[in-house]
Specification:
Structural class: alpha+beta
Shape: elongated
Strand content: 25-35%
């Protein structure tokens, strides 16, 4: 066989062996979270640690309220030596809009607490407390690009309400971020404040993702990445912590996805990237190595629709988490 024909055959073989990432229309729900060996276990909708800390609570102070906005997500699927990779980018939502969404979410969270029978006290005395104010602060917004939550080189902007240029991050609130070591972490001073005043200090964090794993069932290549839009409150990263004489945490065990559409999806992969990948795949296939197909997808958000979907998802999370919290009282 002619060398050029062999090379062409290798390219075709590589492309057929690894499925090209695809987009799907409409909203798709975030996949249910599973844990344990081979994903054998499905966590409850809410997991509780330190249930006794929520008992008998009537007065609460929201010490920290943070919304994390994921804007870059990498989704990879592999089958043997072949892989399919989707790099997903959210565009059209800027810092001003993130702050507006966070302000509204903070207000609605307080309303949900009051509707559940809690007395929500002014957080200003806590924030002005000298000991609390002296703990470690982070920029507001705080950008985490460590890639821990949403794949390699992901980007999450964490925003706190108010015009203050800094925020407090409690221990365990953001994966990979300590929030300060020992007494430099606001958890300890928040606990002191709660014990001195009789209130309970809450630490609230909701993390939002814009893309869902939309792989369909049926006879398709198992390694083909398929993405869809779905504004979701992320499980295991969204939680309510409580601090006082004892501490506890309510963690969202399963994702919550709004059914509202908010973005237009497009394939932003350049022709140069496609050609380069085809050549590389042909070479690696001839050498007996694996192959991959990658695509860059752009999610262009309509700001009003994104805000509506975000609030819808967080309202559902409020109902679930605060409902659980009130049930423990």
């Amino acid at each position: 066989m002619h060398r050029r024909s062999i090379f062409a055959f290798a390219a075709v073989l590589a492309l057929s062996a690894c499925g090209a990432p695809e987009m799907t229309a409409g909203v798709t729900k975030a996949r249910a979270r599973s844990t344990g060996p081979f994903g054998m276990f499905s966590p409850d909708s809410v997991t509780t640690a330190g249930a006794s800390a929520f008992q008998g609570v009537g007065r609460v102070t929201i010490g920290s309220f943070i919304v994390g906005f994921n804007t870059l997500d990498t989704m990879s699927r592999t089958s043997g030596r072949f892989s399919s990779n989707a790099r997903n980018t959210l565009v059209g939502i800027d810092e001003r809009q993130m702050r507006q969404i966070t302000e509204a979410a903070h207000e609605r969270f307080g309303q949900a607490l009051r509707a559940a029978g809690y007395s929500v006290e002014d957080s200003a005395p806590l924030l002005a407390n000298t000991a609390y104010a002296g703990t470690k602060s982070y920029p507001n917004p705080y950008l985490d690009s460590s890639g821990g939550l949403f794949g390699d080189r992901s980007a999450v902007s964490y925003v706190s309400p108010g015009a203050a240029p800094t925020m407090k991050i409690y221990a365990g609130a953001i994966q990979g971020t300590m929030g300060g070591f020992g007494p430099d972490n606001p958890v300890y001073k928040a606990t002191d404040y709660a014990q001195a005043t009789g209130t309970r200090v809450l630490n609230v964090i909701y993390v939002l993702n814009f893309v869902t794993d939309a792989r369909p069932s049926g006879l398709r290549l198992a390694n083909a990445a398929t993405v869809g839009q779905g504004l979701s409150v992320v499980a295991n990263s969204s939680k309510i912590g409580i601090y006082g004489p004892s501490s506890g945490t309510l963690t969202l065990g399963q994702p919550i996805t709004s059914e509202k559409e908010f973005a237009t999806l497009s394939d932003a992969t350049t022709s140069g990237a496609r050609v380069g990948e085809e050549v590389a795949n042909a070479l690696t296939t001839l050498m007996g190595s694996g192959a991959s197909q990658s695509r860059t997808f752009s999610f262009t958000a309509r700001p009003a629709d994104y805000a509506a979907a975000a609030q819808d998802a967080m309202d559902q999370a409020n109902a679930l988490l605060i409902g659980t919290m009130a049930g423990l009282r």
